[in-house]
Amino acid sequence: MAARPRFTSRATVLVLVLCSLVAILAYPTRQFISQRAEISAQRAKADHARQQVEQLRRDKARWQDPEYVKAQARARLHYAVPGETPYIAADPSGAPAQPSASATPASPSADAAAGRPQAAKPWYAGIWDSVDAADTAALAPATPRPLPPSSVGDPTPHDH
User: Fold this and answer.
1) For the ranges 17-21, 33-37, 113-117, 120-124, which has the lowest average pLDDT?
2) Is 83 left (phi over 0), alpha (psi -120 to 50) or beta?
3) What integer pLDDT is reported at residue 43 of this predicted model?
4) How far apart are the C-alpha atoms of 18 and 25, rounded to whole Å?
5) Helix ranges, 64-107 (H)
6) pLDDT digits (tens, 9 = 90+) for 84-124
7) What's 22-76 look like in SS3?
8) How confident is the model over 135-148, as a mean pLDDT?
9) Given CA atoms 33, 34, 40, 43 in this order, what sign does their dihedral have?
10) d(Cα 71, Cα 128) in Å, to the nearest integer?
């Protein structure tokens, strides 16, 4: 019996056709998969944007309510309705309140280093802090300058 060749010309052609089909279809298949992933990501972004729009609409509707605006003015700006007497509780010992060491870090830079957001201060506190900083910078010259002689209160008459 004669030995049959392992690969016939027909099998070789079939293998070449299959390899070329795989090579031809590989790029479009990869593009198809990447485009599906991109479409999925865009849909997720659209859903997130839709949720943000809905949240903003709810916020806008709340701000249309005069009672909500009054509550926010009282809470954020410490406003009082005419006729009310606003009170601010103070420590009778006169010492400023110190938060516990475990509740807050020692410095604002420790907040940033730990990745925690700093508590937002009201706008007027920031302005007042800048005024205090400017005041202490103006009051801190190294040596006081002598005042020039003044003619106010000088008992000697001057001819001009």
Assistant:
1) 113-117
2) left
3) 97
4) 11
5) 66-77
6) 888 777 878 866 655 444 444 444 555 555 555 566 788 88
7) HHHHHHHHHHHHHHHHHHHHHHHHHHHHHHHHHHHHHHHHHHCCHHHHHHHHHHH
8) 63
9) negative
10) 24
Q: 111: burial class by Cβ within 10 Å (0-12, 13-18, 19+)?
A: middle
Q: Which residue has the tokens 């005041």?
A: 135
Specify the DSSP class assigned to residue 115: T
Joined tokens for residue 103: 């509740």
Distance of alpha carbon 108 from alpha carbon 155, whole angstroms:
58
To 10 degrees, what angle do helices 66-77 and 9-63 make? 90
Distance, in Å, from the CA atom of 48 to the CA atom of 42, rounded to the nearest integer, reads: 10
